[in-house]
Amino acid sequence: MSAERLAKEDLVSDLRDRLAKVQGLVLVDFRGLTVEADTKLRNEFRSSGCHYKVVKNTLLGLAVKGTPLEGIDKLLAGPTAVAFNPDDPIAAAKVAAKIAADEKQFTIKGGALEGKALDAAGVEAVSKLPGRDEMRAMFLATLNAVPQGFVALLAAAPQSFVYLLKAREEKLNKGAQE
Known about the structure:
CATH topology of the largest domain: Alpha-Beta Plaits
Oligomer: single chain
Helix content: 55-70%
CATH architecture of the largest domain: 2-Layer Sandwich
Strand order of the largest sheet: 2-3-1-4-5
Strand content: 5-15%
Shape: elongated
CATH class of the largest domain: Alpha Beta
Distance between the termini: 111 Å
């Protein structure tokens, strides 16, 4: 076997292992991007914990063959880059949507979420969902709301009683001055 073939088999194996651990990925077309724009988008993906890799369509097709991501093979035409985050299924979609809004040459081909293939509109819709950290914050706020309401209710009765005493004191002082 040639060294080139071994390198390709290693790449396919590595890609298959990485993609087996992800729940969401995005496929993009990067044609026409300047080197500066490409560097910027790579940095943006990296800063959000995403992996971004330009891959030959045949190799990516081999990597997803027989996996839940096999549905993306119909999106593998033309230059393709794959972006994914092993920990957050929608992080790559959020970054890709942001970059696509800024760079007209950068287009979203589609992607996958939890084994289901998505078209470009599906990836856009996923990018608008709250992320993992946002969901945690919303959950904590919901959990915190009940005790806060209870404490406010407990504090309302004594506070109202103090206002009543203050009003009574003012009325008595006003009557004594007359």
